[in-house]
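User: Can you predict the 3D structure for this chain?
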Amino acid sequence: MKIEKFSNLLRELQKCDSCTNLCEEQSLINIYNDYIFCTNIPSIWTDWFNRLSSELMIIGQDWGPYSDMKKLNNLLKKDRSNWKELIESEKSKTKKILDEYIKKSSNNRYNIDNIFVTNAIMCARKGNNYRGSNINLKKSTINCSKYLLKQIEIVNPKVILTLGYYPLLSLSNLFNFKIYDTLKKTIENFPEIKVKNYVIIPLYHPVAQIKKEEQMEQYRRIWKYIK
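Assistant: Here is the predicted structure, written as structure tokens:
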């Protein structure tokens, strides 16, 4: 049932052009126009269909460059057995640091492979940059929020982890709870947020200039809800 619902959601995303025309450069690309592409492993982060029953969901900001996703898909078409090696070859440190926090805080009971990973912005970036002002982060985050909600309802996780400000902004709009204008202030005042059947734990981005112990304090909160 979950697989069918998620497949229908991906087909619904095929029709969306809310963010691809926000600027002249059309700096976001709808990856769902190619159904085979997006039902494969669309990113080095996740294989969606194998994680639809995860108790944990991580929501990042966006997928990053389409060029990287396309490269990964082409490699997987040739040989799907090298999935682990492809993860290790990721150019940024984000995933490795996040995996380290998950493992350490859970005493090695969990790692990134146990978790459903998605993003507040569902399209991929045009060009080769992971960051920058070439996309309208706030507008695209709000545009995508209805699709994010459907993913949450399908997976039905116990705990939702948000990486950075914009995923938390999306959830605050969806579930009508208060956040501050900075992530740090929000975490200090609302380290855990309970809405409906979910516990939302806002996290700093793994590569943010925040002390490791301060970050670990948030990760340790996860495991009292995951047995």
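The longest strand covers residues 198-203. The mean pLDDT is 86.
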